[in-house]
């Protein structure tokens, strides 16, 4: 079923606002592993639920931690300015996991990253086409998905724009030798003054690709 784009846009913008604020408002009072000033300031460490999904309190690389899925099936880079809304988190017996990341970068640009993992997805030609068509139909994507071969996994990625409301990238990432995969929607609201609201925006493209290409499977 095709999602109503206006309804999707409204949900996207509202959810972005909620997730961007939640982990600031729900700070943990004590974080014994966070010892440096930068770590204490990092939004990813301030929220208890978000912190529970991080592999370590130490940055994997500048500006990013490593998120470890509660399914135990995959890991990915997680923006230091990110937070996960516990109310929008869903998990089913190591098979399906979905959640929304609200991220604020150093330049104050806010992004929303929707993650959906399904262990039962097939990754033959028909299965991959199904996952790509799902993203295409729900986001109104007009561009062809680019296939990127990575170590032990494959990434399919395409830009999208929802009217004048949001811009971003959608992707399907799957392991090369087993079932399962992750659908990712990385979006930025066009109501932000510092955002050039086009899919060609290199900053949006680079940030989206960094998160999507970092997904690795166990």
Tell me what the structure shows.
Residues 1-26 form the signal peptide. The chain has 218 residues and is an alpha+beta fold. The chain has a single domain, classed as Protein Transport Mog1p, Chain A, CATH 3.40.1000. It has 6 helices and 11 strands. The chain has helices at 5-25, 37-41, 43-46, 48-52, 125-139, 202-213; strands at residues 64-68, 74-79, 82-84, 90-92, 96-104, 110-118, 146-150, 153-162, 166-175, 181-189, 216-217. The strands form 2 sheets. Strands 3, 4, 5, 6, 7, 8, 9 and 10 form an 8-stranded antiparallel beta sheet that branches. The two termini are 32 Å apart. Mean pLDDT is 85; it is low at 1-32.
The average pLDDT value, as a whole number, equals 85
> Low-confidence parts, pLDDT < 50 over ≥5 residues?
1-32
Biggest beta sheet summary:
8 strands, antiparallel
Helicity range of the residues?
Answer: 25-40%
Rg, nearest Å: 17 Å
Summarize the structure.
The chain is built from six helices and eleven strands. It has helices at 5-25, 37-41, 43-46, 48-52, 125-139, 202-213, and strands at 64-68, 74-79, 82-84, 90-92, 96-104, 110-118, 146-150, 153-162, 166-175, 181-189, 216-217.
Distinctive features:
globular, 218 residues, 3-stranded antiparallel β-sheet, alpha+beta, Protein Transport Mog1p, Chain A, 6 helices
Q: Which helices and strands appear, and what pairs or packs with what?
A:
Elements: H1 5-25, H2 37-41, H3 43-46, H4 48-52, E1 64-68, E2 74-79, E3 82-84, E4 90-92, E5 96-104, E6 110-118, H5 125-139, E7 146-150, E8 153-162, E9 166-175, E10 181-189, H6 202-213, E11 216-217
Antiparallel strand pairs: 1-2, 2-11, 3-5, 4-5, 5-6, 6-10, 7-8, 8-9, 9-10
